[in-house]
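I had to read the description of the data format several times before I understood it. For illustration, here is how one protein appears when written out as sequence plus structure tokens:
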Amino acid sequence: MLLLAVDTATPAVTAALHDGNSVVAESSSVDARRHGELLLPAVDRVLAEAGVKLDAVTAVVTGVGPGPYTGLRVGLVTASTFGSVLGVPVYGLCTLDGLAYASGLEEPFVVATDARRKEVYWARYESARSRVSEPAVDRPADIAEQVAGLPAIGAGASLYPETFPDARGPEYVSAGALAALAAEKLAAGDDFLPPLPLYLRRPDAQVPKNYKVVTPK
């Protein structure tokens, strides 16, 4: 087994290789505006570090969000393209689950990433491997009662200390954590998400109201 994992649902652009036992190579950088420029070089670095070529990959794992439209689609399109070219399966995982898994917590907590517009993408967890609510997008103040007293993982939590006073790392998802979680799920025969974007809200670009279609005569 050689899993290639990627994620671009947060400002982190991250790629990793996992051989079924452990992460053998990983590359991450944080730049919310350069997902498209940074992801393929990151993949090249982890392949070079592991001393393998792309055709050695047996499956691709991708974070499906939730995340902003522009960044999120970079990782998903890249993962789907690799899967198609290599003829290997592409597995989707919730990006919040990757952050939860990396936390290693064995107590109830919440994961929150920055959704911009003064909102967070968030979900509640019973432990690092057990999510107990569906991912959602809300203003921190609107969920204060639901997350009160819980440790909080992710950059979204650190942005709003009044709602998440017990904010902890990691702030961003790592492809290594996604790959390790995927390896566990494959070994257990668990289901994955389809490699499709989890946006939770409409993109900013929309067709204007009262838009008139002009047809040629």
The mean pLDDT is 93. The radius of gyration is 18 Å. The first helix runs from residue 35 to 50.
